[in-house]
Design brief:
Structural class: mainly alpha
Mean pLDDT: 84
Number of helices: 24
Largest sheet: 2 strands, antiparallel
Shape: globular
Number of strands: 4
Strand order of the largest sheet: 1-2
């Protein structure tokens, strides 16, 4: 093992175990070797604290910069395709009600999650651990989140490939490969590169987004009125139907896991202070749940553009965002409509797919680090995520858009609703700790409050989705998932008296600890690197503090600290200074 590598995120090898005391008179045992780090895992400019708390020393961006980067990631045109698919299938009235209802649900559940991630510097996986799922219980949600990123990468990549086929005649099969490879250099560089790409491309995206609607306002002023009476292409009719409303809402709710991608940026939000409080709150609201306001508008706008282009290009091409974009721009741009639309689509898809690939690498890292106790670096998991996405594209998943997203939303909403219930209800009722505990050393492997609620809710809703409980239950399966998760998470926490949240007390966040400077650092006994207080735990095996990642990767400790909390002892003590950043025990 080397002792010269600067640690960042992880180790590629198991942690050392302590040596037994040598017999009296014998030579002293050699100290255990330091953990060695894979080269890419040791580069913080690429790793971005992918498996741990994001320290305040790393959060060097302003609230507006973080918010702008997060919102840049929602430039995707899948909203256009999703909105068009809903309205074409269920008609305008039911489609409108579905899109707006889903937006309200996504917005409300996103508020507490966004605030928790921004306050504690944690991504969605780490928040899920402490919000009712437990250390290993959240591995399932890591897979759910990873599937969200590669499903939507494939969807967005398909849209980009369609644009390149229209613009230069590139076969879509080759286009799928190009759209996959083009994001790798950007995602490799981490948050710094992503922030620059989002900022540089934002003006092009804004012009491309607004221009088609400006053209139609002048060239087809009566189109909105005709759109309002549109009955779809499947014979649903222009009136409201409960079945269409339920099914359409299920498709729109597939986007609920997008809050995880917003959280991957929000964890870099600087500390909230009296000076920046207003800007901080606004930035978190806008970049967290606020994304869905723009998303819902894009779904309706995409449906409108598809409706206007329907007669000219046919249903199949109307559902592909590039064709309606071209038709809308033709009156003003003529032959330049095609290249202009292609540039807009390609820029939009790059903006979102760098986020999909980045978030996917974080999710896979979290999953495999707990299952294998190894972590070669976040960047290697970019290739796993992109390989799955490319396979889905080559299988033409775009053709099964509605069914795939409708099924996925049952699981996604059960997860997000359970986390939101814990943050809003359980913590205020005192059944859950008032802070987010994400470290293995203090968590039970599985917490039945969140994990149990999600499993039960998603299982029942999936059975409903496949028609086991009748037509109406099938249509409203996502409402079943949300309702059960919201009720069961607090109910299980109350029934178990919150005993499965903490395996042992954390001395830094324990009763009576009112002040602690979370920027104070402690040296990890394994990697010998200083980490801020929230990233450190007591370790009886190491007889000292250990960072959260070295703790996660330890395959030989036997979880002594959790099985026998008394053996751990208060090795780590809070630093009694007036905090310059939010307290470690601050409530969400």
């Amino acid at each position: 093992m080397t002792d010269t590598v600067t640690p960042a995120e992880s180790s590629a090898e198991p942690s050392p175990t302590p040596s037994a005391e040598p017999p009296a008179g014998s030579p002293a045992a050699a100290p255990p070797p330091r953990r060695s780090y894979a080269k890419l895992a040791a580069d913080e400019s690429r790793e971005d604290y992918s498996l741990r708390y994001a320290p305040h020393s790393f959060r060097r961006w302003s609230p507006s910069m973080v918010a702008g980067t997060a919102l840049g990631g929602i430039a995707y045109l899948a909203d256009f395709a999703i909105g068009a698919s809903i309205v074409f299938t269920y008609g305008f009235t039911s489609g409108l009600a579905s899109i707006l209802t889903a937006a309200v649900i996504i917005f409300l559940t996103g508020i507490p999650i966004a605030r928790a991630c921004a306050t504690y510097g944690l991504d969605m996986d780490l928040v899920t651990r402490g919000a009712g799922f437990g250390y290993f219980g959240s591995t399932l949600t890591s897979l759910i989140y990873a599937s969200f990123t590669f499903i939507f990468f494939a969807l967005e990549g398909s849209i980009m490939a369609q644009a390149m086929h229209q613009a230069v005649g590139l076969p879509v099969e080759i286009g799928y490969l190009v759209t996959t490879l083009i994001v790798i250099p950007i995602v490799f560089r981490g948050m710094g590169a992503l922030a620059k790409v989002q900022a540089w491309t934002q003006p092009i995206w804004i012009v491309g987004m607004v221009l088609p609607f400006v053209v139609l306002a002048f060239e087809a002023p009566d189109a909105w009125g005709a759109f309002g009476s549109f009955g779809g292409t499947e014979g649903a009719g222009s009136g409201f139907t409960w079945i269409g409303f339920g099914l359409g809402t299920g498709v729109a709710l597939s986007l609920i896991a997008q809050i995880g991608e917003q959280a991957d940026y929000l964890r870099f939000m600087p500390a909230k202070t009296e000076a920046n409080k207003r800007r901080w709150n606004l930035a978190v609201l806008a970049a967290g749940p606020g994304w869905v306001i723009i998303g819902a508008a894009k779904q309706l706008g995409g449906a409108f553009l598809a409706f206007v282009a329907l007669e000219a290009v046919g249903k199949t091409h109307a559902l592909e965002p590039i064709a309606p974009q071209i038709e809308a721009l033709k009156p003003w741009l003529g032959t330049f409509a095609l290249p202009a639309a292609a540039v807009f689509v390609i820029v939009s898809q790059i903006k979102i797919n760098v986020t999909n690939a980045y978030s996917g690498s974080l999710s896979w890292s979290n999953f495999f680090s707990r299952v294998t106790h190894r972590h070669p670096g976040r960047v290697w998991y970019i290739f796993l995520n992109l390989a799955i996405a490319l396979t889905l594209m080559e299988m033409n998943m775009f053709a099964f858009l509605g069914k795939l997203l409708g099924f996925y939303s049952n699981v996604g909403i059960a997860w997000i609703a359970a986390v939101a219930a814990d943050l809003v209800i359980n913590k205020r009722a005192g059944w859950s700790p008032p802070y987010i505990e994400f470290k293995r050393a203090y968590l039970y492997s599985v917490n039945p409050a969140g994990f149990g609620a999600m499993v039960i809710a998603s299982t029942v809703s999936i059975l409903a989705f496949f028609g086991f409980f009748g037509t109406y239950a099938e249509a409203f399966s996502t409402f079943i998932a949300a309702g059960l998760a919201l009720v069961l998470c607090p109910l299980i926490a109350w029934a178990t008296k919150g005993r499965y949240y903490l395996a042992r007390p954390n001395p830094v966040n324990g009763p009576g600890v009112e002040v602690a400077d979370v920027t104070a650092t402690h040296d990890c006994a394994v990697c010998e690197t200083a980490y801020e207080l929230p990233d450190i735990a007591d370790c009886p095996v190491q007889s000292g503090p250990i960072c959260s990642l070295c703790c996660s990767l330890d395959a030989e400790c036997g979880d002594v600290c959790r099985k026998d909390p008394a053996a751990a002892g208060p090795v780590l003590m809070p630093v009694p200074t007036v905090p310059t950043v939010p307290q470690a025990a601050a409530k969400v």
